[in-house]
Amino acid sequence: MPVFPKISLRPEVEKYLKDGFMNKEVVNTLGKAAAERKFETLLKHLSHPPSFTTVRVNTHLTSVQHVKTLLLDEFQKQFNGLSVPVLQHPDLEDVLLIPVIGPRKNIKKQQCEAVVGAQCGNAVLRGAHVYVPGIVSASSFMKAGDVISVYSDIKGKCKKGAREFDGTKVFLGNGISARSRKEIFSGLCELKGIGIRMTEPIYLSPSFDNVLPGYLFLQNLPSAVVTHVLHPQPGERVLDLCAAPGGKATHIAALMHDQGEVIALDKIPNKVEKIKQNALLLGLNSIKAFCFDGTKALKHDMTEDTQEGPPFSPESFDRILLDAPCSGMGQRPNMACTWTLKEVMSYQPLQRKLFSVAAQLLKPGGMLVYSTCTITLAENEEQVAWALSTFPCLQLQPQEPRIGEEGMMGAGLSLEQLRQLQRFDPSAVPLQDPDQDALRDTTAEDMIRLANKDCIGFFIAKFLKWKSTSEKDPQK
């Protein structure tokens, strides 16, 4: 039985998703009952964290083996001597996998309670402590040093500063308060830092707060796969069109041995600063980050380039990554999404504007990789079908490494085209319930197979530009 309820969605959003996952092609292939079971399984899995924490090693500064040794020592301290394996992924040589233990069902709930927001709760389930801004409610008698039970307000109904909350909440585990209720809600100053240090989380996952910050980057498995699929080479000019917070841009630079030029764009100033900070922390000098709207990154006049930043001349990049803004409905854990149907559907037009710019900025012979962290047909396979019909200069390409499943039917793509896509489907394996004993009895090969399947929802498509873009504007 799942420890959490399935993800809570607005009825019209759930119907929209269900219509996509039970389209005519899928139902004709799987049968109506099987297609419906698969969809309901997906909704249950989205509310639970993946079975593994994934970290990418910054191979520009250190070796994978060195970081693996340091992490094993770190986890011995964090888990009070409990032995937790650290596995190197066989197909992604710079990726390490750490199994998550849980859900642990024998944790005793405390009388003293704190309620945190849904986003904070999601982070706790993946190994984070509770920071003060995430605390919404606390028992009236809570003092610093108290052992307290932490709950997530998954529907956002708890009032800030409440002394108790009887609405829908999900138990996340126990921790020790670093602050009293009075300090947290006095309003005299804005407190930061850890408010509750989790000591008995229901999912035992390592904390990476200030752990080897220059040596590793916490990243979901498919997010590391996508940069390997792009396969950037030293000396190339590569564009990361929607780059914040810089995980993929820094990965691109590391795979290029910091030789060449990685242009990273984002239109929000503080996010661009985050990209620059991550590049500096990881010792990467080939990244140039600019605050700029990616939909306007194409230079339409033919004047000579006089600056290194955007907008850029057509066909001036060897490779382009478009990790597009999306509805994010593949993220895990996610117990509730309050978005309206209009919000969920608003991303497809934006993605097409960005894709049109990317296709025109790419050199003939260059590679364009499109990815999202969502599960909708409209933002994934439908976008591929649109791209192939809109840009005859693009051809779909097979992907290496091949870790995800093939694409989903329903967008009019051929079986061969679907096989060239990668869709990471959280419902592909049953929900796991690993404990220490199970870990000891499981082979490394079985754990890696599970890590490949039990991850976030994600999508990757790779295109080759086999001829120059037509002079006709593809947006008209």
Give an account of the 3D structure.
This protein has 476 residues and is of the alpha/beta class. 30% of the residues lie in helices and 21% in strands. It is built from 15 helices and 20 strands. The strands form four sheets. Strands 12, 13, 14, 15, 17, 18, 19 and 20 form an eight-stranded mixed β-sheet that branches. Strands 6-10-9-8-5-7 form a six-stranded mixed β-sheet. Strand 3 and strand 4 form a beta hairpin. Helix 7 packs across helix 8. The longest helix has 15 residues.
Could you give the count of β-strands?
20
Shape: globular
Percent strand equals 15-25%
Helix content: 25-40%
Kindly report how far apart the N and C termini lie. 51 Å
Reported for the largest beta sheet, the result is: 8 strands, mixed
Low-confidence stretches: none
Radius of gyration: 23 Å
- Mean pLDDT metric: 92
**Count of DSSP H/I helices:** 15
Main structural class:
alpha/beta
